[in-house]
C-alpha cells in the first residue's frame, strides 16, 4: 500500500510540474490559450482548479471552509468537516480553512519550503480576524508528502506544540497508510478541540491531584478535558513499585496488550489508548480516554460495546426549517463486530448565518484580514 501511495505521489507531482511548464509556455505564446492547455491534464487528474492556476501564483480561495484541489476528501468526511468548521466560525469567530494541493511546486511561487508556502498562502488569503489574528490553515500536499497547520499571529507559541501533537498522533499514522481523507478529518477535528479548549498556560499549570474536580469543571465548560488529558505527567504516571516514570509503548507493541475491540478503536482513532511500561520492573499500565475530536463520528456499539459504531448513511425524512427541527433515518455499522442497525436522529433547526458563503466565478481569496508570522507545526511521511 505504501509503494502504491509513493507511485501515486510521484505521478501527481510529475503531472503538476508538466502542467505548470505547459501553462508557462502557453502564457508566453498566447495568454488567451494558457488555461486551455492546462485543462486536459487537469481533467485527467481531477484537479481542474489547482492546475488551471499553476502559472497564477497562489491558488484562489473557492470555498469559505474547504478547498480540496487534490480531490482526496471523501464526500462524507468533507460534509462533516464543513459542518464542524462552520460551527467553529459561528460559535467562536475563528476562521479555519482546509486546503489540499497536488504539489506546492506546481504553483511556481518560488517559496523555498513547504512552510513558507503555507505562511504566504495564509497571508494572501488574509485568514482570521484582522484584530485578533486567529485564523487557521490546514494545508495538505500529497506531492510534497507534507502537512501543515498554520496559525495566525494571535496564537502564542505554546499552541505550536499542540498542533504538532495533532499532526503526529492524528494525521501522520493515517497518511502513512495513504488514508488521506481519514487523516485530514481526524486531524482537523482534533485541531478544533485544541483551539476551543483552555489555553496552554491554563492547562499546563493544573495540578495532577486536582484531576477529579478540574475535569468536571472543564467538562462543564466545554471540551477542556481534552487538553488536560494531554498533560505529560498525567499520561505518564510513576510506577507503583519502583516510583519511576513509566514510558509509553510504541503503537505496535501496545497492541499486544489490547483486546481486538480496543485495537479497532485505536485504529479508528475513536478512543485514545495508552499502554505504559515501567523501564525497570516491566509493569504494564493501561489507560483509555475519550477522543473528543472524533466524538461526532463513532458511537458505542450496542452489541460489542466498543466505540466503533459509524453512521454510513443518513436519509432525511423530515427536512428541518428555520422554525422547526427535522428527522432522519441513520444506517449504522460497527467497524468491529459488523453489527448493523437503523435509528432515528433529530436534525437541528436551520440557523441563518451572518457571514456570506457565496463566491464569484473567479474565486474569492479574501478573508478577514488576518495574518501569520509562521506559527504552527508541520509533518512529513
Q: What would you note in describing this structure?
A:
This protein is an alpha+beta fold. Among the domains are: 59-197, Diaminopimelate Epimerase, Chain A, domain 1; 243-346, no CATH class. Helices cover 39% and strands 19% of the residues. It has 13 helices and twelve strands. It has helices at residues 2-29, 34-45, 48-52, 75-92, 114-125, 158-175, 180-196, 200-204, 211-221, 224-228, 232-235, 251-254, 260-268; strands at residues 66-68, 96-101, 136-141, 146-151, 247-248, 271-277, 284-290, 298-299, 309-318, 326-334, 340-347, 375-380. It has a five-stranded mixed sheet, with helices on both faces. The protein has a four-stranded antiparallel sheet with strand order 8-9-10-11, with no helix packed on it. Helix 1 (2-29) packs antiparallel against helix 2, helix 4 (75-92) packs parallel to helix 7 (180-196) and helix 6 packs antiparallel against helix 7. It is globular and about 55 Å long. Mean pLDDT is 75; it is low at 1-55, 201-235 and 353-365. Residues 66-193 form the TPM domain. Residues 345-381 are annotated as: Disordered. The chain crosses the membrane at residues 210-229.
In short:
The protein has 381 residues and is an alpha+beta fold. Helices cover 39% and strands 19% of the residues.
Amino acid at each position: 500500500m505504501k509503494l502504491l501511495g509513493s507511485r501515486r505521489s510521484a505521478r501527481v507531482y510529475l503531472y503538476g510540474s508538466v502542467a505548470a511548464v505547459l501553462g508557462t509556455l502557453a502564457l508566453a505564446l498566447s495568454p488567451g490559450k494558457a488555461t486551455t492547455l492546462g485543462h486536459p491534464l487537469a481533467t485527467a487528474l481531477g484537479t481542474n482548479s489547482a492546475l488551471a492556476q499553476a502559472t497564477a501564483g497562489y491558488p484562489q480561495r473557492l470555498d469559505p471552509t474547504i478547498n480540496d484541489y487534490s480531490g482526496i476528501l471523501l464526500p462524507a468526511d468533507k460534509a462533516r468537516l464543513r459542518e464542524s468548521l462552520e460551527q467553529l466560525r459561528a460559535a467562536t469567530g475563528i476562521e479555519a480553512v482546509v486546503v489540499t494541493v497536488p504539489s506546492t511546486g506546481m504553483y511556481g511561487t518560488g517559496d523555498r519550503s513547504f512552510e513558507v508556502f503555507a505562511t504566504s498562502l495564509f497571508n494572501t488569503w488574509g485568514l482570521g480576524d484582522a484584530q485578533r489574528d486567529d485564523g487557521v490553515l490546514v494545508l495538505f500536499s500529497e506531492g510534497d508528502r507534507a502537512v501543515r497547520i498554520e496559525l495566525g499571529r494571535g496564537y502564542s507559541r505554546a499552541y505550536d506544540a499542540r498542533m504538532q501533537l495533532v499532526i503526529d498522533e492524528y494525521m501522520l499514522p493515517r497518511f502513512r497508510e495513504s488514508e488521506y481523507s481519514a487523516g485530514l478529518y481526524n486531524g482537523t477535528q482534533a485541531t478544533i478541540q485544541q483551539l476551543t479548549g483552555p489555553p496552554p498556560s491554563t492547562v499546563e499549570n493544573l495540578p495532577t491531584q486536582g484531576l477529579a474536580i478540574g475535569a468536571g469543571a472543564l467538562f462543564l465548560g466545554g471540551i477542556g478535558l481534552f487538553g488536560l488529558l494531554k498533560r505529560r505527567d498525567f499520561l505518564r504516571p510513576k510506577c507503583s513499585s519502583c516510583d519511576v516514570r513509566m514510558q509509553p509503548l510504541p503503537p505496535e507493541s501496545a497492541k499486544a496488550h489490547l483486546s481486538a475491540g480496543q485495537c479497532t478503536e485505536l485504529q479508528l482513532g475513536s478512543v485514545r489508548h495508552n499502554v505504559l511500561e515501567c523501564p525497570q520492573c516491566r509493569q504494564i499500565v493501561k489507560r483509555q480516554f475519550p477522543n473528543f475530536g472524533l466524538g461526532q463520528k463513532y458511537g458505542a456499539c450496542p452489541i460489542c460495546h466498543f466505540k466503533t459504531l459509524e453512521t454510513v448513511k443518513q436519509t432525511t425524512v423530515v427536512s428541518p426549517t428555520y422554525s422547526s427541527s427535522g428527522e432522519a433515518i441513520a444506517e449504522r455499522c460497527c467497524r468491529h463486530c459488523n453489527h448493523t442497525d437503523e435509528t432515528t436522529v433529530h436534525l437541528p433547526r436551520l440557523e441563518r448565518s451572518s457571514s456570506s458563503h457565496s463566491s464569484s466565478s473567479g474565486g474569492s481569496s479574501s478573508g478577514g484580514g488576518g495574518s501569520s508570522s509562521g506559527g504552527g507545526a508541520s509533518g512529513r511521511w
